[in-house]
């Protein structure tokens, strides 16, 4: 038997899902929790094979409860069952230690299958969740120079041409003090220590091709 703890603050949801799962020949609901704190307490006392965890609950939300359980019991297998698909919920839940992520719009049979598959060592993700994760994994991190403002790029380009701060100020009709502020910001955003390193970075990234 696969021993399950179900945590959800809606009693009717718990009754419906628990009744369906209990009818399965290989699944037993050993405990139910109505809030996050109770979920942590019951999880650590019962040590179920699978924990079904809602995200939005009183006292402690599902993300906090998942993290708390995994801190005390790293081997816990937790399936998030929620209505939320937004990034602010998905990523923190998985980072907190959730093994699988299901939506409440899933069929009861899908949740039962997710319980069996997660128990067998698989990680089950809704197609929309898997797509979000793949997109996030393949998204190229922004380069340092993408943080520069349009004015800072202008200053960097003139620096690359060998101009002094005063010459840059004259060319852009800004004060010497303002130029120094821009230069300081450029060095900070590029993660370099001096003007020379900033210019080397600009050449390496081919930020200002001569034939543009």
From TrEMBL:
Gene Ontology BP term (one): regulation of DNA-templated transcription
Gene3D superfamilies from the UniProt entry: 3.40.50.2300
Domain Response regulatory: 3-119
Domain HTH luxR-type: 141-206
Pfam families to which the protein is assigned, alphabetical: GerE, Response_reg
Keyword Phosphoprotein tagged: yes
Gene Ontology molecular functions: DNA binding
Keywords associated with the record: DNA-binding, Phosphoprotein, Transcription, Transcription regulation
Cell compartments where the protein resides: Cytoplasm
Signal peptide, first to last residue: none
Protein name as annotated: Two component transcriptional regulator, LuxR family
Origin species: Bacillus selenitireducens (strain ATCC 700615 / DSM 15326 / MLS10)
